[in-house]
Please model this.
Amino acid sequence: MWYNKSSKHQIIYHKMLNQFCNELSNYHGGLMMKKVKNIRLLFFETEIYKKVLYFILNEFEVFCMIFIFYAKAIYTQKYTNSPMLESAIVSTACLGSALVIAGLMMPIKKNYRFYIILGFNIVISILLFSDVVYYRYYSNVLTVPVLFQSKLMDGSLLASIRSLIDPKDILLFIDIGVLIGLKYVIGKIKSKYEIENRGTGMIKKIIFALLLISVGIMFTTKVFVQAGKLKSNSTFKKLYDSSFIISNIGILNFHVFDGYVFLMDALGNDVISSDDKNEAKEAITTWGETNFENKKLFNDDLKGTQKGKNLFVIQMEAFQNFLIDKEFNGKEVTPYLNEFKDRCMYFNNFYSQTASGNTSDAEMMLNNSLYPLTEGSVYFKYSTNKYESLPTLFKEQGYDTFSMHAYKASFWNRAMMHPVQGFDRFYSRRDYEFDEVLGRWGLSDNSFFRQNLEIFEDKKDNNEEPFYSFIITLSSHYPYEGFIDFDEIDTGEFEGTIVGDYVEAIHYADKVFGESLKELEKMGYLDDSVIVMYGDHEGIKSGSPESFRESLSIPDNKDILKYEMKNVPLFIHFPDDEYSGKYDKLCGQIDLMPTISNLFGIDSEYTFGMDMINQERDYLAFATKDIITKDRKLYTNRNFTWYDMNSGVNLVEDDVLKGYKDNGIKEVNASYDILHYDLLKEFIIDNK
Model:
């Protein structure tokens, strides 16, 4: 029994109560004492109060657990920018999961329960801490597929992660010490007043546990039903949107749901219906014909005009468009590219569409024109799929295909995926001499390009042309360190901040590219090659200084800032500087493959992108099912809201905007089905 009416317990109880009253009297005098005694007569002497007091003392860790898990979940929601943080939905979801966990712990034998709760608390703290840190860079939380990419966690990446840790993150762990302290203090109280330590009887424990679990499930079921009313059930079956789910069912419930989805995939219980398969096939084979307006940039469609020429594709690490023509204290950040863009087709309304696969997503979209995943990387999850990729199509035209990146071949699973994509050779870290190391990521871009130029010179001398060369830079990778000796720009108020460091990194990358371009021109490559150059993803995240946002005249809206930062430059250079000019049409990385295919006379049937030379789009979709329209309206799927990107004002969804949203969701879902069920393998066979 945890409480009985024996004289011993009555004496202990009155002894505790009298000491409590005496202490209050010492601080507040006789008047307070009189009030306390009146309260005592009304309530403190009742049997129910005595039982509640003993119950709380004996089961304190369970009550602490409810409060701690609820508080941690709300704290994490804040740092993952939940749009419904202050609503009853998220509060109910977080409380529901905390109640369920506490209920499951309740029946455990008291001698072990505290230590099990403490261990579980440590695990939850580490998980939520990882969510917060991961979100600061990827704008997403950890999922099971991402955890399977842990092989990426080498020294360089770990050092970058450390730079994302905020001192406030200690709040996720401070309760562990408090819980241990409370255990000690309550133990002393129980010992002093000779309170039995047997805890609650098993029957009462089970009843209370069932009560906690029932209420928790009721709360959790309520938010799942609420979310289901707001969103199609497909969200909970396949391409679930983590931002949406977190915002509506809470961070802890999300991790349970994520584990369930991963387990179902692993068990092979996920089978596509014939209707969904036919819909996916129709979408990818007709999308370019039915969803884009035929609008040529020139009188000629340029189809096949570059056939037989070399192709250089340069994917620039973390290169954003706002730095083009940008000056700090009278000095240009990108002087070489500012000059180069006047010789190119410069698309200034081009967007990175990467998701949790980051750089690997940009590579995948370039070569396949499919959408990336919101959880994990295509390069890991679908490395055994069949693809009709750009390198494969170039090889069918007699091209030599190779990729170049001076980092570990295993990183992002490139050692496996680049051959799968159709590259004959992958020049990785082991193929370069490390004669100039910059920062924590390894070989400098300066040395990387210099050694690549030697390879290109040999190919020219040995008549090993035409070729498709895919070059991936590295030095301007977060956290933008290693440029102390290259400090050439005074960034003013941003000096010493992440923005200032980023500006120096891009200034360095611009200089390296400019010098390398001169060497390529000397070799004659600019006369017989097409050069495509673009940024892979944003370099500055939404957590940058407020003054930075203001300096770019971006509205005070985190969603708008996020997508403004996804605006990266695209340059396409032709021999004799043909077709040069600035083009404002809305486009993204998913459009690269169809555009390149058209220029080189290649038929690419299975793509979701458009030919930027001859077509125009009304909207651009992202893997998260967010939408940007050509008149700068932004739809964020996590809170179902349209914004004017210029003013930040919320917009009412009309029929036109709804059509854009529905089409965007349709193409992202179709792309997911194609990857998840390896449908291209079947489509390609059926087409032969």
